[in-house]
Amino acid sequence: MYENILYEVKDHVGYLTINRPKALNALCTAVLEEIDDCLDTKIAPDNDVHVVVVTGAGRAFVAGADISEMQTKPVLEGHDYTELGHKVMDKIDNSPKVFIAAVNGFALGGGCELSMACDIRIASEKALFGQPEVGLGITPGFGGTQRLPRLVGKGMAKYMILAAKNVKADEALRIGLVQQVVPAEELMPTVEKLAKSIAAKAPIAVQQSKMAINNGMNTDLRTGCRLEIEGFQQCFASEDRVEGMSAFVEKRDPVFQNK
Ligand code: HXC
User: Which UniProt keywords apply (predicted)?
Assistant: First the structure.
């Protein structure tokens, strides 16, 4: 049904693949609209899927927003384009589900931003990260000026954005932009294993932890700790908390019901 993306569910994990390999998966308007639709109509309503893997078909993760499309846009459409990208990134970032970016190659501009909207980034040794926008006469426009400094610190973010310095996978790991680097052939098995391990945990606990981290990072420590207390209590009132603790005491694996 989609022309530029693929979406499938395997073993309770969603796999969203940007599938425009001829243009290195560049995020044209149609791709962004399809991702947006998939998030709303397939991913959000699916209560069986708690973890979604985002990756790219072919040799790129995503090489950025579509430069050819942007080149022809009238001035007034610039705003709509950045708004659309932000809407998609915000939906991923604020989703109660966990998104893992499996970064298989170029993650430049909007591609780096898409990976940063995800909760966890696992990279192939072939991955390359960067925000080259200033060389095109624009700022990053899908959240890069905000999410990159939150992940790697202000100095490194300015180094990457102001000087348009790309970083290879090993450097991305060193600065904390990615959480693990693996050989290319091990990328999807590694991500699949990680996705399944998260999906096996109590969904409410994973969701509340994600929200406490996200919302807490946008506020002061005291307010963030109050958010944690509220999230903790919601988990404490859940059936899955009873199951998780009973399973530990009874020396068996828990069976969570998302209740
Ligand atoms: C449109 C792109 C593209 C992009 C690659 N292609 N990146 N098309 N937008 N971002 C297309 C090329 O035009 C080419 O099409 C095909 O993909 C293969 O790319 P090549 O350049 O031939 O491959 P290679 O020599 O291996 O170089 C790979 C690359 C280079 C280093 C990734 O393609 C590149 O620099 N791409 C642009 C990266 C970039 O600047 N990204 C940021 C975009 S701005 P043809 O038809 O010739 O085969 C951005 C802003 C976000 O993301 C916010 C907006 C609001």
Answer: Lyase
